[in-house]
């Protein structure tokens, strides 16, 4: 399925789907922890949490097995949420600013906004979630009306929507400062465990984020080009401003992924190469060509590396927070396009290798000293969800039949999503100006 969306809305096809869905929400209620939790204190967020305080919206869809309808779904999920919040109590608080002028969580215990809704259609209308569709899927996620910034938004909201066919969806809006993809997966799976009747969690959260406090004084021992501003000599801002943004999804099955890896290894420059390194290099190079960047245009690739096991000592199991660190690769457009895919894949490989305990500690200290946030000017940011197994999210109605993002958080973001029952394929989701998307499509058709 290919969906096309405008920057401030959706194209005709997506718009008609949004109208047919016709979701009616009830008034939100607050779900508080089922037992007393610490209140009146500030919960510490690490410097790795500070950099990515954006709202991530996801939807999980469930087809109810025969003999069990969706009538009780909202009650089961609400009760289980109250019980799992006893373990994840900061999610029941509200974001604030610490005396050090950093994001923190005020442990108020007031609860998570929870909404019940009904859709005047069947689940089948949604499609396969292979491409973000903010106008339609946005109806399945609750956003606080009138909120002007993240301080006016709770750390998370939940919406359960019942469909005419008997299925239902769970829509979540969660602030990335609360956890990364792995942490979010562990939370959702723990919530599902509670819904299935568990009294103890398989992976209890480790709440103390002070294990990632900066050094005193800060020690910046590595260059951190992820924060560097890049001049827009190719006038990309103007291109994005005058053309509609189109979203498309490109599926790479195992055979196609092997061809991509073969391209990266073809000229012998690389002795070995992972699928992620090869695919990231290919996509970075293809997007650069599709956008028509000037040869002298500096371009930056950012992607997150899971630092949990790379820290010394490793972060504790169940670490509740962001254990990811952004790494980077830099090249001019001319350098990328005049060389084979191996050049780009090699730069990705170097960026992965760069992430050591000292590099990550240096990144933590860099924010402490500068309060800088990564710049996305002339940047591609790849986010990888392909290793996240959300199939544990069985709330008692079976595993989700599909799940995915409502939208991409920034125009510079590309998402890698696992695809297929065996999760061996990767869907590449991205948005580009219309003319660039056509050029990108032609480059992908050649593979």
UniProtKB/TrEMBL annotation:
E.C. number: 2.3.1.302
Signal peptide: none
Keyword Acyltransferase: yes
Keywords: Acyltransferase, Transferase
GO MF assignments: acyltransferase activity, transferring groups other than amino-acyl groups
EC supergroup of this enzyme: transferase
Gene3D superfamilies in the record: Chloramphenicol acetyltransferase-like domain
The UniProt record lists the keyword Transferase: yes
Reactions catalysed: 5-hydroxyanthranilate + (E)-caffeoyl-CoA = avenanthramide C + CoA; 5-hydroxyanthranilate + (E)-4-coumaroyl-CoA = avenanthramide A + CoA
Family, as annotated: Belongs to the plant acyltransferase family.
Function: Involved in the biosynthesis of avenanthramide phytoalexins, which are phenolic alkaloids found mainly in oats. Catalyzes the N-acylation of 5-hydroxyanthranilate with 4-coumaroyl-CoA or caffeoyl-CoA as acyl donors, forming avenanthramide A and avenanthramide C, respectively. Does not accept feruloyl-CoA as a substrate.
Protein's recorded name: hydroxycinnamoyl-CoA:5-hydroxyanthranilate N-hydroxycinnamoyltransferase
Organism in which the protein naturally occurs: Triticum aestivum
């Amino acid at each position: 399925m290919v969906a096309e969306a405008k920057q401030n809305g959706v194209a005709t096809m997506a718009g008609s789907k949004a109208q047919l869905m016709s979701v009616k929400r009830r008034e939100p209620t607050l779900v508080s922890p089922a037992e007393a939790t610490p209140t009146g204190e500030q919960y510490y967020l690490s410097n790795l949490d500070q950099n990515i305080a954006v709202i991530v919206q996801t939807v999980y869809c469930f087809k109810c097995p025969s003999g069990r309808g969706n009538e009780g779904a909202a009650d089961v999920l609400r009760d289980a949420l109250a019980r799992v919040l006893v373990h994840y109590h900061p999610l029941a608080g509200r974001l604030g600013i610490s005396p050090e002028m950093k994001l923190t969580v005020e442990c108020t215990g007031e609860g998570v906004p929870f909404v019940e809704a009904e859709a005047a259609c069947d689940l089948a209308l949604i499609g396969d979630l292979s491409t973000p569709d903010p106008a339609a899927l946005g109806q399945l996620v609750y956003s606080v009306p009138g909120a002007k910034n993240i301080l006016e938004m709770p750390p998370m909201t939940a919406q359960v929507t019942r469909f005419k066919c008997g299925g239902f969806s769970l829509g979540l809006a969660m602030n990335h400062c609360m956890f990364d993809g792995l942490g979010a997966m562990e939370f959702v799976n723990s919530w599902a465990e509670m819904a299935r009747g568990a009294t103890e969690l398989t992976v209890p959260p480790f709440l103390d984020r002070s294990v990632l406090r900066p050094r005193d004084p800060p020690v910046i021992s590595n260059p951190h080009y992820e924060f560097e501003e890049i001049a827009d000599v190719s006038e990309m801002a103007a291109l994005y401003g005058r053309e509609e943004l189109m979203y498309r999804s490109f599926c790479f099955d195992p055979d196609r992924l092997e061809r991509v890896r073969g391209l990266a290894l073809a000229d012998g420059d690389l002795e070995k190469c992972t699928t992620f390194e090869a695919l990231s290099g290919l996509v970075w190079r293809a997007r650069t060509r599709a956008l028509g960047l000037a040869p002298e245009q500096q371009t930056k690739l950012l992607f997150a590396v899971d630092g949990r096991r790379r820290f010394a000592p490793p972060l504790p199991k169940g670490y509740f927070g962001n254990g990811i660190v952004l790494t980077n690769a830099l090249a001019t457009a001319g350098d990328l396009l005049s060389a084979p895919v191996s050049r780009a894949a090699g730069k990705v490989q170097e960026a992965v290798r760069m992430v050591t305990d000292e590099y990550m500690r240096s990144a933590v200290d860099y924010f402490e000293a500068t309060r800088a946030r990564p710049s996305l000017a002339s940047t591609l940011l790849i986010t990888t969800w392909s290793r996240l197994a959300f199939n544990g999210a069985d709330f008692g109605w079976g595993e989700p039949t599909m799940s995915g993002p409502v939208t991409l958080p920034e125009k510079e973001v590309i998402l890698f999503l696992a695809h297929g029952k065996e999760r061996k394929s990767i869907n590449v989701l991205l948005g580009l100006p219309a003319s660039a998307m056509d050029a990108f499509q032609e480059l992908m058709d050649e593979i």
